[in-house]
Inverse folding.
């Protein structure tokens, strides 16, 4: 833009063209990078098994991912412990 303000339109055009070419290269690189990331993060690539069940006419997808199973177990353990504590406190 400095070249354009100085009246050097030929150099300004060259700079604009270079910038456009750089942006096209960056966009192509990002597209390849995104495609690789999506391929690597697919459920099957990570070893995640899914199962679809229908609950009250509503389809639900269950995940058998180790992280999800660990979280589910932790939540269930905490809720059981809390329920037992509540029963002890009532007596």
């Amino acid at each position: 833009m400095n070249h354009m303000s100085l009246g050097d339109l030929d150099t300004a055009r060259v700079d604009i063209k270079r910038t456009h070419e750089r942006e096209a290269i960056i966009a192509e690189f990002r597209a390849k990078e995104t495609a690789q990331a999506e391929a690597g993060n697919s459920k099957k690539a990570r070893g995640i098994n899914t199962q679809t069940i229908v609950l009250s006419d509503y389809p639900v997808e269950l995940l058998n991912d180790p992280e999800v199973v660990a979280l589910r177990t932790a939540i269930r353990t905490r809720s059981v412990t809390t329920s037992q504590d509540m029963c002890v406190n009532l007596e």
About this structure: The CA atoms of residues 57 and 65 lie 25 Å apart. Strands lie at 50-55, 58-63.
